[in-house]
């Protein structure tokens, strides 16, 4: 027993490193969140298959419904797994970010094509201006901030618009 305890003590730094890995923690959280769904969906398999042990055969319609319910629960399981992993990763990395206040300036070094092109005006939120920080330290506005007029431009800003 002493040898086992000594081996575990030697491995403790490795175990701590693994347990503190945010990606592995997120995957663990995903699996743990799925356990209730796995237990629930396994009931459909048990009901569909166990009676065959005693030479009982479900009607094809009932059997189909049981397997369909199992399939749907597995679909729910996959969405739950992905959502939980994403939430766990987001929560972990958001805690490492500094708290921001209104008026603070935020620099995103490289957003690729996703800065403005993939921006979405959820709940009427207007997109911010985009600034380019040049190597010499100068800053150039490459896209102005949107205004309320921009938000309604598709309704009012062209001939034949719905609103004048």
Considering the chains and any ligands shown, give keywords for the structure.
mainly alpha; single chain; two-stranded antiparallel sheet; 164 residues; 5% strand
Large-scale geometry: flat
Largest sheet: 2 strands, antiparallel
Question: Which blocks of ≥5 consecutive residues have pLDDT under 50?
Answer: none
Q: What is the count of DSSP helices, taking H or I runs of 4+ residues? A: 5
Report the count of strand segments.
2
The helix/strand order is: HHHEEHH
SSE-based structural type: mainly alpha
The percent of residues in helical segments reads 40-55%
Average pLDDT, to the nearest integer?
A: 83
The oligomeric status of these chains comes to single chain
List the helices and strands and how they pair.
Layout: H1 2-19, H2 22-49, H3 60-95, E1 130-133, E2 139-143, H4 148-151, H5 153-156
Antiparallel strand pairs: 1-2
Helix pairs in contact: 2-3
Verbal overview:
- This protein has 164 residues and is mainly alpha-helical.
- Helices cover 55% and strands 5% of the residues.
- The chain is built from 5 helices and 2 strands; from the N terminus they run αααββαα.
- It has a two-stranded antiparallel sheet with strand order 1-2.
- Helix 2 (22-49) packs antiparallel against helix 3 (60-95).
- The radius of gyration is 27 Å and the shape is flat.
- The model has no long low-confidence stretch (mean pLDDT 83).
